[in-house]
Amino acid sequence: MSTVSERELKQLREHLGDRLNTEPALLAHYGHDSSRLAPEGAAVALVLAESTEDVSAALSWANEHEVPVSVRGAGTGLAGGANSYPGGLIISLERMNSILQIDAENRLAVVEAGVITATLDAAAKEHGLFFPPDPASAATSTVGGNIATNAGGLRCVAHGVTTDSVAALEVVLADGRIMRTGSRTRKNVVGYDLKSLFTGSEGTLGIITSATVRLKAIAPGIPRTFRAGFDSIEDAGRAVTAIVNGPHQPEILELLDTFSVEAVEAFHPTGVEIPKGAMLVGQTTGLDANERAEAIAAICTVNGASSTEVSESDSLLEARRLANPALNALGLRVSCDVAVPVASLAEVFNGLAEISKQHGLRISNVAHAGDGNLHCVVESNPELGGEAAAELVIDDITRYALSMGGTISGEHGIGAVKRHELPWQLDEASLAVQFAIKHALDPKGILTPARAI
Ligand SMILES: Cc1cc2nc3c(=O)[nH]c(=O)nc-3n(C[C@H](O)[C@H](O)[C@H](O)COP(=O)(O)OP(=O)(O)OC[C@H]3O[C@@H](n4cnc5c(N)ncnc54)[C@H](O)[C@@H]3O)c2cc1C
Fold first, then answer.
1. Spatial separation of the C-alpha atoms in residues 204 and 453, rounded to whole Å
2. Which of the ends of the chain has fewer CB neighbours closer than 10 A, N or C?
3. Which of 61, 92, 123 is the last residue of a domain?
4. Are 253 and 359 in a shared domain?
């Protein structure tokens, strides 16, 4: 319930004018992300910020009145991190969507936090450059959201996660102070690495208002895509380990199991062969793209692939792009994004099959396989306990991934969805350091409280 008085809201309106909204329909629209979690309650107000000063005014007001704040980019997050708080304030970065500079000579771009990821990538392309982070949500997610979640994506196997592309940040702290960290240089060793601290902080330490990000040159030549079908998913896992340890590095290396390829073909037929176990799809770039794709296909054959193909067309990746919407269309929402060391992939797929058998529920696997990052989606059958039973399967998968030296989240973040899992991975001392950092930067606990950390 809100404890904010009309008089207090009026103070904020004096700063923000019509950038402050209280319409219930708008509060509902901006009050949830794309996760399976419903918001804890409705916010009292929404700030559609247009400048860093708007964000600063909103945060210093929230801090003074101890109002919980949820921060929103585009709301494509899958961890419940941007969901609103009862009686809280929502700060949206959506309107801060200008590309301020493309500095081609230094391969940098300066952007406001609300710029859509694919828009930045398209602008970079005009200079022969690209923005490496490419979550499957790139057409809708924001650069600020990508930085706040340290998002991954299809190209991570070649270019790393978002933090590897962040050079500098402008951040508004919980009390409204504006801070800049990082630099435009390739090397910079001054002070603690706060840029990395804020990257992946999921709206808990400050609000990112603008960023200087690194771009890369588009490789010359025509990219090639490759596909390999396997009768056994373990063999596909072994092939991934062999590929990433081999001399022919792919730009993309993804895995879809039979369940997910069947879901794609039922949703929007692409004509791709349905494998008996799993399919690997990927891409190579550069002048030797064809040789490398053929060499990767040969590694797949040696590791048990029953069919392979290499193509100039991008269409082999279509099934991968359709996997999320196809699984969503089946109403499957209970998922996780654990990651495991890439050399244990084959063993992990075996273990997942065991977990599936124990619970009597099917698990679909779409994986950023080259990174060992698995998106397991569990079937929820109303006759077998529905989503509650599926959540127990996710718990087992997560503990199993940890036992293999893995992590509870490779890219989606913790938010509210995985917060109960934190002590499974972080020891007591590590948790205490995390809470100390949170307390130092947000002593009143107003910024995305009780989430992520
Ligand atoms: C179809 C689909 C495919 C996806 N594919 C991928 C994928 O391949 N890889 C991947 O990593 N993720 C993926 N995601 C998840 C999601 O797109 C990412 O987490 C993305 O980075 C979120 O960006 P957003 O702008 O939507 O942020 P939001 O959902 O609005 O927010 C996400 C979190 O970041 C915080 N936040 C947002 N903006 C800021 C800011 N400016 N300052 C401080 N905190 C902020 C929020 O408070 C919240 O905790 C996918 C989601 C969908 C729906």
1. 8
2. N
3. 92
4. yes
137 C-alpha to center of ligand 1: Å? 8
CA 229 remoteness from chain centre: 27
d(CA 177, CA 59): 9
> What are the tens digits of pLDDT across the range 155-165?
999 999 999 99
Give the C-alpha separation, 282 to 341, whole Å.
19
Nearest C-alpha neighbor of 35 from the set 364, 389, 334, 393: 334
Task: Compute the distance between CA of residue 254 and CA of residue 281 in angstroms, rounded to an integer.
Answer: 5
Atom of ligand 1 nearest to the CA of 81: 49
In a domain, 443, yes or no: no
Alpha-carbon distance of 409 to 420, in angstroms, equals 13
Q: Which residues line ligand 1 (CB under 6 A)?
A: 33-34, 71-78, 81-82, 93, 113, 135-137, 141-142, 144-146, 148-149, 151-153, 202-203, 207-208, 324, 411-412, 415, 448
The Cα 363–Cα 401 span in angstroms is 14
Please, what is the average pLDDT of the chain? 96
Query: Does residue 440 belong to any structural domain of this protein?
Result: no
Give how many domains the chain has, as a whole number.
Answer: 3
pLDDT of residue 1: 42
Span from the CA of 57 to the centroid of ligand 1 (angstroms): 24
Helix (H) or strand (E) holding 112, with range, is strand 108-112
- We report the CATH number of the domain holding residue 281 as 3.40.462.10
Amino acid (one-letter) located at 23: E
CA distance 265 to 325: 12
Sheet order of strands, 166-173 included: 99-103, 108-112, 206-214, 166-173, 178-182
pLDDT given at position 381: 85
% residues pLDDT > 70 (the chain)? 100
Pair 238, 194: CB distance under 8 Å: no
DSSP letter at 389 equals H
Closest-CA residue, ligand 1 atom 44, reads 203
Q: How many whole angstroms separate alpha carbon 138 and alpha carbon 72?
A: 16
Q: State the residue range of the domain holding 69.
A: 6-92
Rounded Cα–Cα distance for residues 16 and 21 (Å): 10
